[in-house]
Design a protein that fits this description.
The complex is a heterodimer of chains A (293) and B (320). Chain A is built from twelve helices and no strands. Chain A has 293 residues and is mostly helical. Chain A has a single domain, classed as MetI-like (MetI-like fold, Orthogonal Bundle), CATH 1.10.3720. In chain A, helix 2 crosses helix 4, helix 9 runs parallel beside helix 10 and helix 10 runs antiparallel to helix 11. With 320 residues, chain B is α/β, with parallel strands linked by helices. Chain B has nine helices and twelve strands. The longest helix of chain B has 18 residues. The chains are: A mainly alpha (293), B alpha/beta (320). At the A-B interface, helix 8, helix 9 and helix 12 of A face helix 2, helix 3 and helix 4 of B.
Chain lengths: 293, 320
């Protein structure tokens, strides 16, 4: 009758239930649906894309959108639609992976700093704040210098650019929660620090981090596109939305579709990710959730 | 009568401020508190807010590390225990907190909150947790059907019952109650108090009851310890013993009498509590006391023992 074993699935309830509930509203359905569509497109790119993203056809370069090149071709005669579809793979995976790394590292550092405090906290926060003082592009350049241009450098650059945000957010949450009576009450039950951190502090600190993470994925896509635009990200012929826009600048007036369509896709993706993030804010609030039930 | 807890010269100083060029100021939150807690008794600790009652409660449970002093629980020296030993010992001594609204994790259901102590101490494997939770809820007078609700769905009184059930899950022998009724309605207060009375008889518990409500303490407790500015000023062995300390007397006189015919003039205390950062040289109550003399301002009155009644005053009042 009474389900007690739920304790284990605090994270599952958070991630699973709340994400599902975020689809409840119209806005959630539209933005969430668009995101799912993008992920679907990215995963099944080889089956969906009508052409090979790398095959050049110089005779048919800069074709305006018309059948069979629905979105036209670029300066090498490559199909823009196919490149966009493959580009979704690059953009989404790089951004999502980078933000995932950033959240993991940021939450670990932030939780440790907030929980243990003292000198450790000061050292961690100083170093982390230092990364915030560099422009993202500069961090990317440093990594490009070390690792050479490519997606790995882009990923690390994005991860580090957002590290400070997650570290600060988690630390602030933990510091606030640490002084709550329920933490003192749990210590008084004889709980080990590990139990308090994993069962009480982190689950309660998680929801704002998830929301900010969601919004950061949108920013990460833009940052990936920016780095790609400067030629620091994906190297040709790997398609990325940023790199596609970059190559489109050369024939902006001759073949505007080469730059417009990737731009539209980036904008749509970021808007849907952000809107879905907003829906997630509401659905993550446990009190809100109960009121709806 | 066996001693459950022996508190000796318990002191806590909080350091505050202090930078590169300034010395930290120290604040005496609890200053040399000694008393014994006998098995099965309810000992009340009263005093104004800020007098160190809650700090005392946390010091006894070592939720805050004392600056000095000794704690002896069931013949064992608590101060000598390591963190791990202390965690195991917490089964024996539980606490109910003042604010029922924040003492349960908002993400935990009632059942999860109540079974958590059992899981922490590895007792959950041998027990049927559902049954255990239902039993505990019944014990504190709650409907077991509420086990799946979240704290914010419960009323203040229900939440306080949940935190009592949670404290009882480990079968403690000592329960420290830190103003358990302070944030509840009067009618709910009465329910909680009668529940606590019932539980003490059923489960053979010993209570340390922290409160600022003197009439409640007079009704509920066997012994009363009166604190002022981190110190014990008077320890009444039972509620019939007349108070001798002017502070206790003023506190007693300031409780409201429901019967208008018996109502008397309330003598409000003049002045302010001295700053705990800067304790006066003599009796800390001297500045507000009608009976103070120059001796009071110069010398700290010792806690004098008269049988089991203890009072710290140079000029104790004679029973009237």
């Amino acid at each position: 009758m009474i389900a007690i074993k739920k304790t284990k699935s605090v994270y599952q309830r958070l991630a699973g239930l709340s994400v599902v509930r975020a689809f409840g509203s119209t806005m959630g359905k539209i933005s969430g649906g668009l995101m799912i569509l993008l992920v679907f497109v990215a995963i099944f790119a080889p089956w969906i894309a009508p052409f090979d993203y790398a095959s050049q056809d110089l005779l048919n370069a800069n074709l305006a959108p018309a059948w069979p090149h629905v979105l036209g071709t670029d300066e090498f005669g490559r199909d823009v639609l196919s490149r966009l579809i493959y580009g979704a793979r690059t953009s989404l995976s790089v951004s999502a992976t980078a933000i995932f790394i950033s959240i993991t590292a940021g939450m670990t550092l932030g939780a440790a700093a907030g929980y243990f405090g003292g000198t450790f906290e000061r050292v961690v926060m100083t170093v982390v704040d230092l990364t915030w003082s560099f422009p993202d592009i500069l961090i990317a350049l440093i990594f490009v210098a070390i690792l050479g241009p490519g997606l790995t450098s882009t990923m690390f650059a994005i991860a580090i650019a957002y590290l400070a945000q997650f570290t600060r957010l988690t630390r602030a949450q933990i510091v606030r929660l640490k002084n709550e009576t329920f933490i003192e009450a749990t210590i008084n039950l004889g709980a080990k620090p590990r139990h308090i951190l994993w069962r009480h502090l982190l689950p309660n600190a998680l929801s704002p981090v998830i929301v900010v993470g969601m919004l950061a994925i949108g920013d990460g896509i833009v940052l990936e596109a920016t780095l790609g635009f400067f030629g620091l990200g994906a190297q040709p012929p790997t398609p990325s939305w940023g790199a596609m826009m970059s190559s489109g600048t050369a024939q902006l007036f001759l073949a505007p579709w080469v730059i417009i369509f990737p731009g539209v896709v980036v904008a749509l993706t970021v808007i849907s990710v952000n809107l879905f993030g907003d829906e997630l804010i509401n659905s993550l609030d446990i009190r809100e959730r109960m009121r709806e039930d | 009568m066996s001693k459950l807890l022996e508190v000796r010269d318990l002191t806590k100083r909080f350091e505050s401020g202090g930078g590169l060029f300034s010395k930290p100021r120290s604040m005496h939150a609890v200053n040399g508190v000694s008393f014994d807690l006998h098995k099965g008794k309810i000992v009340g600790v009263v005093g104004e807010s800020g007098c160190g009652k809650s700090t005392l409660a946390r010091l006894i449970l070592r939720l805050i590390e004392p600056t000095s002093g000794s704690l002896c629980f069931k013949g064992e020296d608590l101060m000598a225990k390591s963190a791990a030993q202390m965690r195991a010992l917490r089964k024996e001594m539980q606490m109910v907190f003042q604010d029922p609204y924040s003492c349960i994790d908002p993400r935990y259901t009632v059942a999860q909150a109540i079974s958590e102590p059992l899981q922490i101490h590895g007792l959950s494997k041998d027990l049927d947790l559902n049954k255990e939770v239902a039993q505990l809820l019944e014990k504190v007078g709650m409907n077991p059907a509420l086990a799946d609700s979240y704290p914010h769905q419960l009323s203040g009184g229900q939440k306080q019952r949940v935190s009592i059930a949670r404290a009882l899950a480990l079968n403690p022998s000592l329960l420290v109650l830190d103003e358990p009724t302070a944030s509840l309605d009067v009618s709910v207060q009465a329910q909680i108090i009668s529940l606590l009375e019932k539980l003490r008889d059923e489960l053979d518990l010993t209570y340390l009851f922290i409160s600022h409500d003197l009439s409640l303490v007079e009704y509920f407790c066997d012994e009363i310890i009166v604190m002022y500015l981190g110190k014990v000023v008077e320890h009444l062995p039972d509620t019939n013993t007349p108070a001798q300390h002017p502070y206790t007397r003023t506190l007693l006189d300031s409780t409201f009498e429901p019967d208008p015919n018996k109502r008397r003039e309330i003598t409000a205390l003049e002045g302010e509590v001295p700053s705990p950062f800067n304790l006066p040289p003599g009796c800390s109550f001297a500045a507000r006391c009608q009976h103070s003399t120059s001796l009071c301002h110069e010398q700290v009155p010792p806690l004098e023992v008269q049988g089991s009644h203890r009072v710290a005053c140079h000029h104790p009042l004679v029973a009237s």
